[in-house]
Each structure stands twice: as C-alpha cells, then as structure tokens.
Amino acid sequence: MAAVRDIKAREMIEASDDGAVELAKRHLVQPWPYAGSVGAEARALIAEGDGVYITDAAGKRLIDGPAGMWCINVGHRREELAKVMYDQAMALSYNTPWYTMNAPSAELARRIADAAPGDLSHTFFTTGGSSAVETALRFMQFYNNVRGRPEKKLILSRGGAYHGSTYLSASLNGRPRDRDWMDGADELVVKLSSPDPFRRPKGMDVSAFTDFLVDQFRDAIARVGADRIGAFVGEPVQASGGVIVPPDGYLKRIREICRDNDILYVSDEVVTGFGRLGHVFASGDVFGIDPDMITFAKGVTSGYFPLGGVVISERLLEELRRSNHPDALFGHGLTYTSHPIGCAVALKNLDLLEEGVLAHTREIAPYFQARLKTLEELPLVGEVRGVGLMACIECVADRESKDPLQLDKDVGKRIDAHCHELGLLVRPLINMCVMSPPLIIGREQIDDMVAILREGISRTMDDLRKEGVWRG
Ligand SMILES: Cc1ncc(COP(=O)(O)O)c(C=O)c1O
User: How far is the CA of 64 from the centre of ligand 1 (A)?
Assistant: First the structure.
C-alpha cells in the first residue's frame, strides 16, 4: 500500500482539507486566473490518485479524463516510479550541470536518441514544455548568429497553437483568448492558419484545404523572405487548440518546404511525445517526418517530476562545432537542467512505456476513438475527433452553421460540472471537452467514461434549453 493509504497520512490529508480551500483562496495564485478572481479562487481539491482514477477531497472517485494535463501517461500511484525517485534522491539528489554531470541524464539522452527520428541525437533537458520550446527557439537564434545570419530569426506559428507560458513560447500561442490581455514578442512571429479540417472554409474539400494551407505557408515565406525566417514551430496534433488532427500529408509537405528554405522545423511533442499516440515520438512513427528539433515534457516522467527537453539534430550541432566561431557561447542553461531525479524517473517511465504501455495504447486507441465517436448522436455535439488516446468533443449550436455556441461561452465547463458529479474529470475548453486519459485505461473504463459524458452532455442540453440559450 502506498504511503497515502496508511492511516496517519490519511488523517493528515483529511485534517488539512477544510483548511486547504481557505488557504488557497487567501494565499495561492493559480494558473490562468481571471482578474476578477485572481488570488481568491477555490478549485476542486484533489487528494489522491490511483491508476486512471483520482479522488477529490470529499472522497469522490473520478476517472482522470485529461490525465492531469495530458501527462499521467502510465497512471497514478506507480510504486516503481516513486521508488526510483526515492533511490535517486538518496544516491544523488542534485548536482550542478554547469560544470558537473550525472549518469541518469546521459543514459536518458541516449535512450531518447534511439527513439527519435532522423538524425536527432542530443538532448538538452529543461524543467517542462515552455522551457523546452524556449530552449529550441534560443538555440535557433544562437545557431543563426553563429552562422552569420543574425537576421534569420522570425518564427512561423499557427492559429490554435499552444506552446507555453514563458515570454517567447507564449508569443507563438494562437488561441485568441490566450493573448488578448497579454504582451508578447509579436514582432518575431508570423502567424498562419490552424490546420483544422472541421473549420475549413465552407465548400472546400479537405484536399483543397490542405493545398490552401501549404500555399499559405509558401506565400508567407515568399512575402517575408526565407532569409528572415529561422524556424517553424508546430504541434503534430494541436492539443490545447482542441485536438486538431491535421489533414493527411500536410505535415510532410510543410517539412519539405522548411528543408528547401533552410527553416528549422521544430516539432512540439510536449503532448504527443512519450506514448499519447502509441509511440515515444509521433513525428516519425505516426506522421513520417524528421524534424530538426523535437520538444517534449509531460509524459516523459508521466508527470511524476517536472522535466522537459529538446532533442536536436546532429547536423546542427556539427555545423556549430565546425563554425568559424568555436568560442561563441550558447548562454543558456537552467539550474535544473539534467536533474538527476527527473532523468532517473524518466528512465523507469520509459521502461514501462516500452515494456507494454505503448503497445496497449496502440491496441486500445481505436476502441477509445470509436466509443467517443458515438457521442456525435447528441445534437449539441458538432464533431468528435482525435488520434491515439487524445480526443475532443466539440459542441456547436447546430451542425450547419458550426456556431460554437456564442451565447454560452463556457459549455465545456457546464459539461465538466455534470461529469464531475457523475465521476469523470473533463478538460473543458470553451465549447469543447478534451479527453486524454492515462494510457493504461481499459475497455470498461472507456465505457464508463463515454456513458458519463453522454449523460453529462444530455444534462447540459437540458440546462441550455431551459435557459433558452439553445434550441437544439
Ligand atoms: C504542445 C505544448 N507545448 C508546450 C507546452 C508548455 O508546457 P509546460 O506547461 O510544461 O511549460 C504545452 C502545455 O500544455 C503544450 O501543450
């Protein structure tokens, strides 16, 4: 039994529950708050996790629909992972990466190179996804400075993208409300359309839409100049944008255009990496592309420790080594770069993935997608889409207009509230619900999840009808 189950620990959690909500409201600034509630907000208090379930402070057990934040890939309460962290902390809890190194990070970098596509051979470890994207972009800037192309720094990004919450990574974000009240390095970013087939222009088929996206990409390069563009950054599947699965062949064509124009292709696999699509990396194994860099985080430790990184092409490193500026300094590093506990737990997590979780994910994903797809029978649901073990239920006022329920901007939150009562945690996103459960989920648990969603959406439809904001 894990420690939290022993009576003393349990009593401590219970004793602290009442206080925690009040304390949070008085002292905690939580992520993504509105100005009106910043520093004064109570969110659902979660006390325990076990497998695909979490239990809230009131003792209610919920399926962890979003797997934390797309990250609890091998599930909660894995004793192997807890033990490895304990053992590593007792052996070496930390060493300075400035002028020393540790074995787990070197071994993890080798395992990542083995799994990565193309000539991606070296990893720079960070503390999470934002710092991984930030590192990739700062590396691109450094690379072009060393090559004597200081003007080649602009970054191509797309609507619907989410790349992080540090200044430069957040500047790439393409969801309007993420940026409305925030500043960014807009002068460095060229924005393109989201490759969202559901919201393609009316009357355009998917093949013509793909051509449109590719033409837009080419046109942007022609307009701005390839000599001014350093990188394209893109998620293989736009995750927080609503699980946007791009049209077939689109990523390959974008990759080729980047290669032809000497633009670095950065594949942001913070969500898709480490199992979500049944492979360590989706770029090569699912989409057939070999990026210049891949960023990752989240699933690399299944959320047990904050770790991320960027895998970099051997070719780029070799160019730097052979440059005319061997003494140019890449002035970038984090205190916790190559953290030994993070790397040790990532190694064990990778064992678990490779010893069965990846195969299980590939096997169960079609069932997961097919069962969720049945929710399209409900009139509020415009589309259910996804790949691997990530999916999105997008609600619309009606299927003809695809109006994302302008009258009620938070239909996702309404569904989440009903589902919480029924035993499922949902990730609400405006008019969408995102599902990305722990990869160890079984068929019965998928059935439970879908039944709860069906009931939660039905109750939401009733509410909306009663309030007169929807007539479906
Ligand atoms: C694709 C993608 N990139 C980057 C990030 C940022 O990662 P983090 O929150 O670990 O900084 C996220 C977070 O959700 C993400 O989904």
Answer: 19
Q: Which domain covers residue 132, as residue numbers?
A: 80-352
471 assigned to some structural domain? no
Helix locations, 39-151, DSSP H: 67-70, 79-91, 103-115, 129-146
User: What pLDDT is recorded for position 3?
Assistant: 44
Strands 229-234 and 154-158 come out as parallel
Residues 52 and 189 in one domain: no
> What's the CATH number where 246 sits?
3.40.640.10
Return the half-sphere exposure (C-beta side, CA atoms, 13 A cut-off) of residue 302: 32
395-408 pLDDT, tens digit each: 998 888 888 766 56
Q: Is the pLDDT of residue 59 over 90?
A: yes
DSSP helix/strand/coil, 369: helix
Residues 65 and 193 in one domain: no
How many CB atoms lie under 10 A from the CB of residue 201?
A: 9
The SS3 call for residue 265 is: strand
Output the CA torsion 204→209→215→217 (10° steps). Answer: 140
The answer to which of 134-143, 317-326, 397-406, 455-464 has the lowest mean pLDDT is 397-406
Angle subtended at Cα 115 by Cα 323 and Cα 105, rounded to the nearest 5 degrees: 70
In short, whether 310's Cβ falls inside 6 Å of ligand 1 is no
Amino acid identity at 63: I
295 in Cβ contact with 270 (< 8 Å): yes
**Is pLDDT at 350 greater than 60 in this prediction?**
yes
What is residue 157's three-state secondary structure? Answer: strand
8 Å CB contact between 143 and 320 = yes
Looking at the domain assignment, is residue 458 inside a domain? yes
Same domain? 301 vs 199: yes
Shared-domain flag, residues 182 and 297: yes
Question: DSSP readout, 301-334?
Answer: TTTSS--EEEEEEHHHHHHHHTSS-TT-------
Chain-centre distance for alpha carbon 26: 30
> 170: CA distance to ligand 1 center in Å?
10
Tell me: do 323 and 436 sit in the same domain.
Answer: no
Indicate if 59 and 34 belong to the same structural domain.
yes
Probe target for ligand 1 pocket from 73, 163, 274, 295, with the most ligand atoms within 8 Å of CB: 163
Instruction: Identify whether 113 is part of a domain.
Output: yes
Cα(270)–Cα(297) distance, integer angstroms: 5
Handedness of CA 368, 373, 378, 382 (dihedral sign): positive
**Distance between start and end Cα atoms, the chain:** 49
CATH of residue 453's domain is 3.90.1150.10
